[in-house]
Write a structure and sequence with these properties.
Layout lengths: L1 H27 L18 H25 L1 H4 L10 H25 L3 H12 L14 H18 L4 H17 L12 H14 L13 H5 L5
This protein binds zinc ion (ZN) (2 copies).
Length: 228
């Protein structure tokens, strides 16, 4: 049921908060600080400014997600029972929506490195030279809104999708955005994908601002020769 989707999305947002809190604890803890990808001498952004931006972006995200879902529900999601939902269908919907999103995001992100857009919008996020999980949503509100609207648009183009597919798409999108900013490279092979994401995006914040624009898969950066 569609009402389940609203509950699922709220659970995902709550999980995102817990994951961010855990990764923030880990990156500053004695136990895990040896696994930091890079350590700054000082953090550039005052804590109060950071918390204010993050809180406002969280609020804005909730309004956009539920507002767009409520307004464009018929384009985005279908009720359970209107179609037979198989595993293959869910996999297809999830992969198609996320690949399209990542493709469009690549261009949006690359475009936002235009000096003017950088100065007024994307520069807020890049002011963070040593990202941690909390800075995954330290962005200009325009950038936060644009990213979410792009995801909703991609789902609308592919969709409408099932309640389960929508839940998985949001879970992956939210979790990956937090993990890429973790600043942690954990030693066990089980964390290979986690480390791949964190290292890839750390390069974008540190050494090479003109590399690794895509957020989820490396394809688009390979294809357009910006993988680094
Ligand atoms: Zn960037
Ligand atoms: Zn970032």
């Amino acid at each position: 049921m569609i009402s389940d989707l609203y509950i699922n999305l709220m659970i995902i947002l709550a999980f995102a908060g817990v994951l961010m809190a855990f990764l923030m604890w880990a990156v500053h803890s004695e136990q895990y600080k040896q696994y930091r990808i890079r350590t700054p001498k000082t953090y550039r952004i005052p804590k109060s400014k950071k918390y204010k931006n993050v809180a406002l972006n969280m609020l804005q995200s909730v309004i956009i997600i539920f507002g767009v879902l409520y307004t464009f529900q018929d384009f985005l999601v279908y009720e359970d029972g209107t179609k037979e939902v198989s595993g293959i269908l869910v996999l297809g919907e999830v992969l198609a929506a996320l690949l399209l999103y990542d493709f469009l995001y690549y261009f949006m992100h690359r475009g936002s490195h235009n000096p003017k857009v950088m100065k007024f919008v994307h520069g807020t996020h890049h002011y963070v030279r040593f990202p941690t999980a909390l800075e995954s949503i330290y962005v200009h509100p325009i950038e936060g809104a644009a990213g979410l609207l792009l995801l909703m648009f991609s789902i609308g183009v592919v969709g409408p999708v099932s309640v389960l597919s929508m839940t998985i798409i949001f879970f992956i999108h939210t979790t990956v955005n937090i993990l890429v900013h973790s600043n942690l490279e954990l030693p066990h092979p089980i964390f290979r994908l986690f480390n791949f994401w964190a290292l890839k995006h750390d390069i974008h914040h540190g050494k090479h601002l003109n590399k690794n624009y895509a957020s989820i898969a490396p394809f688009w950066d390979f294809l357009f020769d910006t993988y680094g």
